[in-house]
Amino acid sequence: MTEKKVTIKNRAGIHARPAALLVQTASKFASKILLEKGSEQINAKSIMGVISLGATYQTVLKIIADGLDEKEAVEVLSRLFDNKFEEE
Amino acid sequence: MEKFTVLDLLQLDLKEHDALNLKCIAGRPGLIREITVPEIDRPGLALCGFFENFAYKRIQVFGRGENSYLAKLEKDGNMETVVKIFQYEVPCCIFTYGYKPSKTILDLAEKLKCPVLQTDLASSEFSARIIRVLSDVFAPHQTVHGVLVEVFGVGILIRGDSGVGKSEIALELIERGHRLVADDAINIRCVSGNILFGKGASVVISHHMEIRGLGIINITHLFGVGAIRDEKRIQLVVQLEEWDANKIYDRIGSEETTDILDVKVPFLVIPVKPGRNIPIIIETAAMNERLKRMGYHSTKEFSRNVMNWLETKSARTFFLEEKHLYK
User: Which residues contact A35 (CB under 8 A, 6 or more apart)?
Assistant: First the structure.
């Protein structure tokens, strides 16, 4: 199991487009990937789940991956957060 | 395009307000003459002997005025211009109001092999109809491989490689009460620059389908006349593809389009795999398309609502941060 804390750096937060990007990226990995916000945990491969997190600017999320390619998955996903989901 | 001859014009299957009511009254051998331009000409000036810029490639329409003038010419025994018109190799001469030209003129036409047709319509009505018919005939067109169905009133062209299950999906849609326009070879033509109409390549085979394991079936006989349609405007193109785990599919709904005859049509790629009920997905796509036309765009609306929600939340957290609170 690999975990990493990330902060949302794009002003608009995770709305539909970043959510789609996140889910598409996560779906490329075989590992089970979860996003944790406070007490909520959702599957990072479900688009409606990711949007319903309501992750706004500066929110801290935890990426939790479990499986064969967990390290790589966390690495790639956290890079998305750092890149502000290719926005701004 | 194949040659479109006067005979083809006579043989067009036109109904009701499209009917031209044409019949050939002289110059039958000339029926093989080709019609090359979708326009008509009133040969008044030519009859008077003015042949400069005579539009001889167009169909010549003789209305009341031309007819009276022909009668006058005949009385004066001056048929020179009539002969000249016939010799110009005009595609055909059409007499409106059911007017029958005199025997002299018919004999001349017969001799010069110029087809003379007659219609019982008034000139203005006939002109309007023939222009409509000819612009249809001369519209840019193309034949594509796919199935054209009408789902909830939306014309959907289903495309995809053979074996992906297009016909089976269309069959299920028909079973669910939708209509088949044509299977396999779809003839698409572009009308007035931005409207695409599709129909079967041939009337004889268009309402049949080939279902693997069953062979060829006749949809009209099996599902009734309510399950078919001759022609339909194409409003959505659905591309079926084998599910490819490495390919990225649209998840939130974008506004992709595809070009057919230089017209942009909304386009969806739907991955097929066992367990995915494609007919229901296509039905939903059709309804979604109708919603969009009514001005409600599900994806955009959803996106906007999410943005608003996130903004409110963001503003709230900002104001609730301690440093902004009065102490």
Answer: A41, A42, A43, A44, A50, A53, A61, A62, A63, A64
Rounded to the nearest 5°, which phi and psi values hold at B309? -60, -45
**What is the tens place of the pLDDT at every residue in B123-174?**
999 999 999 888 888 888 888 889 999 999 999 999 988 778 888 899 999 9
Question: Which one of A15, A29, A40, A53 makes the best mutation probe of the B interface by having the most chain B beta carbons within 10 Å?
Answer: A15
- Under DSSP, is residue B24 helix (H, G, I), strand (E, B) or coil? strand
pLDDT in tens, B207-230: 888 888 888 899 999 999 999 999
Handedness of CA B37, B41, B46, B47 (dihedral sign): positive
Q: Tell me the pLDDT tens digit for each residue of B60-107.
A: 999 999 999 999 998 888 888 888 888 888 999 999 999 988 888 899
Q: In angstroms, how far is CA B19 from the centroid of its own chain?
A: 17
Exposure string for A41-62, b = 16+ CB within 10 A, e = fewer: ebebbebebbbebbbbbebebe
Does A15 contact B303 at a Cβ distance shorter than 8 Å? Answer: yes
The residues, ordered by sequence, that sit 6+ positions from B170 with a Cβ below 8 Å of its Cβ are B147, B149, B158, B180, B183, B209
What's the gap in Å between the CA of A16 and the closest CA on chain B? 6
The whole-angstrom separation of Cα A76 and Cα A54 is 21
pTM to 2 decimal places: 0.72
Burial A14-30 (b: 16+ CB within 10 A, else e): bbbbbbbbbbebbbebe
Q: To the nearest 10°, report the CA torsion of B165, B168, B265, B177.
A: -160
B297 has a chain A CB within 8 A of its CB: no
Mean pLDDT of chain B: 88
Contact B252 A47 (CB under 8 A): yes
Burial of B78 (0-12, 13-18, 19+ CB in 10 A): exposed
Q: Which of A12, A20, A57 sits opposite B252 (nearest CB)?
A: A20
- Classify residue B171 as exposed, middle or buried by CB count within 10 Å of its CB (0-12, 13-18, 19+): buried
CB contact under 8 A, B303 and A14: no
State the nearest Cα–Cα gap between A69 and chain B, in angstroms. Answer: 16
